[in-house]
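Worked example 3. Consider a protein that binds adenosine-5'-diphosphate.
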Amino acid sequence: MINIQNVHKSFGDLEVLKGIDLDVKKGEVLSIIGSSGSGKSTLLYCINAIEKIQKGKIIVDDIDVHHPDTNQDQLRQRLGMVFQQWNSFPHLTVLENAALAPRVVKKMSKDEAMAIAEKELIHVGLGDKFDVYPTKLSGGQQQRLAIARALAMKPNYMLFDEITSALDPELVGEVLDTLRILREDGMTMICVTHEIAFARDVSDTVAYFQHGVIEEMGPPDQVISNPQKETTQKFLSKVL
Ligand code: ADP
Ligand code: MG
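Given these inputs, the predicted complex is written out as structure tokens:
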């Protein structure tokens, strides 16, 4: 599981995370919602050690993420991450993109890496795109490729940072459907998202972030359908 205890994070004088506590258990889906600038992305970067923290603790399985002795490469192999912007290699085919990290990072043979990549591409609905170059894909297909690339590393957890925010509205559904499939598979996920209906449907827990604190957290039936706090109600009335 992922266990986050009293995490504080500042950029200079700006305190961006002000004591975050949360747990994500195996097989659970946590959605994080909240206004721009509330610290959602920063928390994801702290979980995979892209950013340091000033106080508190983050545990991933048995790994103390910010301990100086932690092997961050091993940590990151457990955490797949997909961002808002597509970040594939344009000079490699879809299949080569998906096979790259298993080959380079896990030192798999070409055949082994290709076999895993093919399987994950089929999984996200790109079984007919192996030999295509990513620039020829739609935005939704590019995001599904990014998901397949992350899955090819066999992570224990997937972290998604607003992966549908840059997409044309008609392409959002296919990417969210892919996340629903992962959920059915039992993948443990943290989804930072503006898709409130999606968060309500798929999450075990929803956390509403405001100014670096969790204002309200609980099952979607509470946080989205029946928020207890006025701040949460206000936010939802703007985005729903
Ligand atoms: P969100 O993802 O919720 O929109 P972020 O985590 O990206 O919010 O940012 C939270 C705050 O931290 C914002 O005020 C942002 O400007 C600031 N911030 C984020 N990254 C940096 C950085 N590398 N250096 C300085 N300030 C940053
Ligand atoms: Mg963000």
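Take a moment to read the result before moving on. The CA atoms of residues 135 and 186 lie 31 Å apart. The mean pLDDT is 96.
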